[in-house]
Write a structure and sequence with these properties.
Blueprint: E1 2-7, H1 15-28, E2 33-37, H2 41-46, E3 49-51, H3 83-92, E4 97-102, H4 104-115, E5 120-124, H5 140-161, E6 164-169, H6 176-185, E7 189-191, H7 199-211, E8 217-221, H8 230-234, H9 249-261, E9 265-269, H10 281-299, E10 305-310, E11 313-318, H11 319-322, H12 331-338
Parallel strand pairs: 1-2, 1-4, 4-5, 5-10, 6-8, 6-9, 7-8
Antiparallel strand pairs: 2-3, 10-11
Bound molecules: 6-O-phosphono-beta-D-fructofuranose.
Residues 10, 126-128, 170-172, 222, 246, 275 line the site of 6-O-phosphono-beta-D-fructofuranose.
Length: 342
């Protein structure tokens, strides 16, 4: 059996480890043959493939990014898109099924293709940890480690100058990275999309930390909207994918904090640094295990499903379980962190 593997959506540390896991188990335990699909669904639609043998995946578990490339192409768009055309392309290249490694958009497309008769298996990916049906997604732990390290560094420079430091982290719709990195670094305020906060609530916490002799550290998710400042934020417009433009809430927050508290304040936007470089050991293991189990699922013919982490086990779930509502930060988890604000 010949299987195509693709990575789609934003890149994420651990993608290469998944690819390696699938190919190693698929070729040694089973007699599967693999082909790499370039740049996500674009490669499927345009028939752009590359060799994918043991040789190509050598040493890949520690390598960031994706050797296959990625894009945000929708497989149902364009002249050569749609399930019928894709089925013809796959047939022409003797490809029996696809493993799609991606986030919500990728899995939604995979679900639709599966319903239209294409053999697709999913592997969930997101540094934001916003997918349901999997307790953790690979890439999240790496992003949290990078953000925590950055905040530890912000604290020493903040302490030296007695400044308030604002760190903006990724998290388009959910605040998992901010919550975990903020807790790990001992932030005095954590602002996440799930919990509305006004500038007065934030500055009160900043002033309290400052009065205790601390250099206040504020961590904010890129998707956070400050209560009362929605208008200033909505001016940012839409991005190329019709999503509200994100990033920059830290730059909006810092001058407001400084103006209200009188404490000199600096903002740092961590951005794509959180997605680059080597995956953490935890993410390498998780991604590799997902890859190994994906190879088993191919042989079992478990199409239309995705492999996922539940507890410490890797299980199979229908695509639909991961789609729809996002995995948001529950209030009790935020309150645990807030108990440490002081
Ligand atoms: O979903 C992962 C993520 O890194 C988000 O945290 C962020 O909002 C988005 O992708 C950035 O996307 P892009 O790489 O297209 O700028």
């Amino acid at each position: 059996m010949k299987i195509g593997i693709l990575t789609s959506g934003g890149d994420c540390p651990g993608l290469n480890a998944v690819i390696r896991g699938i190919v190693l188990k698929g070729t040694t335990t089973y007699d599967l043959e693999f082909v790499g699909i370039r740049d996500g669904w674009r490669g499927v639609v345009e028939g752009d493939f590359m060799p994918l043998t043991r040789h190509e995946v050598k040493g890949l578990s520690k390598v960031g990014g994706t050797i296959l490339g990625t894009s945000r192409t929708n497989p149902y768009e364009g002249e050569r898109g749609g399930a019928e055309n894709i089925a013809k392309t796959l047939y022409g290249h003797k490809i029996d099924g696809i493993v799609a490694i991606g986030g919500e958009g990728t899995l939604a497309a995979a679900d639709r293709l599966a319903k239209d008769g294409i053999k697709v298996l999913g592997v969930p990916k997101t540094i934001d940890n916003d997918l349901r049906a999997t307790d953790y997604s690979f890439g999240f732990d790496t992003a949290v480690n990078i953000a925590t390290d950055a905040m530890d560094r912000l604290r020493t420079t903040g302490d030296s100058h007695q400044r308030c430091m604002v760190a903006e982290v990724m998290g388009r719709h959910v605040g998992w990275i901010a919550l975990h990195a903020g807790m790990a670094a001992g932030a005095h305020v954590i602002c996440i999309p799930e919990v509305p906060m006004s500038i007065d609530e934030i500055t009160e916490l900043v002033t309290r930390a400052h009065d205790r002799g601390r250099a206040p550290l504020v961590v904010v998710s890129e998707g956070f909207t400050l209560t009362g400042m929605e208008e200033a934020y909505s001016d940012k417009g839409l991005d190329a994918f019709n999503r509200p433009r994100l990033g920059g809430i830290g730059d909006l927050l810092a001058p407001e904090i400084e103006r209200i508290t009188g404490i000199e304040t600096r903002a740092t936007i961590l951005g794509h640094i959180q997605r680059g470089g080597s995956p953490s050991a935890f993410d390498r293991v998780l991604a590799t295990r997902l890859g190994l189990h994906a190879a088993d699922a191919i042989v079992d013919g478990a199409w239309g499903q995705m492999v996922a982490m539940q507890g410490t086990d890797i299980v199979r779930v229908p695509f639909a379980d991961a789609l729809g509502e996002l995995n948001t930060v529950p209030r009790y988890r935020y309150d645990e962190a807030a108990a440490l604000f002081g």
